[in-house]
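Researcher: Next sequence.
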Amino acid sequence: MSIMLIKRALCSAAILLISSLPCGWAGDEPLFKLYDPGDERVVDYEKYGIFSGAGTYGYKYTITDSAGLAKASGEGIDPNTSVEKDPDYQRLKSQGKLNGSHWKYVNTANPQADFFVWATASKESPGTRLFFTARALNNARLYLHALKAYRAAMTLYPDAFCWNRELTWTWLIAPAAWDEAVNLTRMHPELELKLTGSFVKTEAAVGGNPTQNLVAVTPGRLIKYTSEDRKKASADLGSLKVVERRGGKKSACVKYSNGQWGLEVDGKPFFVKGLTYGMVKVGHNYDWDWMHADQNKNGSNDVAYETWLDKNGNGRRDENEPAVGDFKLMQEMGCNTIRIFNTIPYNKELLRDLHKTYGIRVLICDPFGAYTVHSGARWENGTDYTDPDQRKSMKEAVAQTVKEYKNEEWLLGYILGNENNLPADYMGVNASRTQASVQPKIYAEFLNEVAGMMHKMDPDHIVGVGNVELGLADKYALYAPELDFIGVNSYPGSNGFGALWMRARFIIDRPILITEFGCDAYATAKGPDEEAQEFYLKNAWEDIAHNAAGGPGEGNSIGGILFEWLDEWWKDTRGDPWDEQNTEQTVELAFPDGFSQEEWLGIVSQGNGRSSPFQRVPRKAYYTIKELWTR
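Model: Next structure:
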């Protein structure tokens, strides 16, 4: 994750969409009772209107029975207006507790007030109003009504959009509502509902005019889906025939006869439980050579074998705090893969021991021109995939990596690029500094050329691309058949990845590896916030596992790589990056406080930094992920 990288942003004008009270965090009893829950548990829209152009950019739903739809939907959900008759609404309004801008009522400690304010925000666009009404209901643990509101938003207002805080860019309501509806039904099986046949396709307007965005909605249906149905949806992979194999003998992506994708290592099923391992010593930059670090000259690697747990948090190593080492700590938490870049010299013997002693494999990531690494491009111009000299330079760098490591037992596979598809003008910042987004066909074809070269040089390992979300995946489907998997960096919010897995299946027939997911452990105006990070990462992993082959989900997930193992201290932009850990808001992101504090993304901290690179202070997320990975 780069210093100023903007991931898929889901932002309101006041607070990021997922800056929410954790859904179900403190028990699932509703925080208040609805005055009018509606007559139908699942609204049958076909009874009250006409669908036209489903699945196309001309999609529309025309209401023919407004009174019937209002009665079925319940308060707060269009076209129902009964919320104004709610005695609690009238009471809070008379007490002045609903005054002020509706943007002040996003994910506050009073979801009922949030609900009333948003349900009656007549000056807001109806799609945005419905979406944040749903968020309030979700926070109030009124999950069924929230699901109805999300579904109404994507069904009734397909073209709705919302501006960010600075009114510089927009996000679309329909795909965001679709994501949240999918998250809700997965996280709350007690609802016994599943959204089937739904899909949202979007195309940004040329020139950036949000009123001209193209949105195609296929509403789908909410059907009864019991725990027994979930069991039936699961499959015994051992009984399924492998119909396609991508990769080689040592690692391969395999497609089963039921259309699902899995990963095999040495012929056995393998699910990536990974960590981004970018070690940084306080006082050094991101390119610190951790693989050869031996500060005390005792012949033992500092981070692999000599880090210690600061059990009492006093910032110094006590007698009862022996050296453990990161490799052992990662093994104990169930990690089986680390992701590292080929931008520092590798210590082969160290990585051999990582695999032999601790059972952890390595995914090598070549930037492939990201941040202009290996392309030789000027930073201000970014990597140009049409430039023959830059192409040659990148290709030679990849070839050297493959030649050097293809026979290593610790090698799991290769990732080409890291968010290279980030749009060049995305929110005014192109942190990846490549021209891939404006050269999509050429970029995809070059990916294919290089991946093909890698397969010839190393027929035993898988090759994938490192992407932001699913951008350009349609181009990979057409022009990059040599890619074995699609790596997705995604920071979608605290409820999981939503419909990402469904989108991927629709766009490209390849397995998905979440190559980055994470959350910082710092909240603006609050300070360290380990609980929110823990909740975010727990939901993310459970979503990744839910969609694995053989499970009840889409069956195209082959694992995930958490960003990241350890806090980095080099991302400070204030001019004195190593005096203390930076708490500066670096970018709007779907994190609990609406921002990313880039130096707080580790599930393990470096304490006060005075004992770097040895001190380790595991956060709550470390223990939660450990529990999930070692079950």
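Model: Confidence is low (pLDDT under 50) at residues 1-26. The first strand starts at residue 49 and ends at 52.
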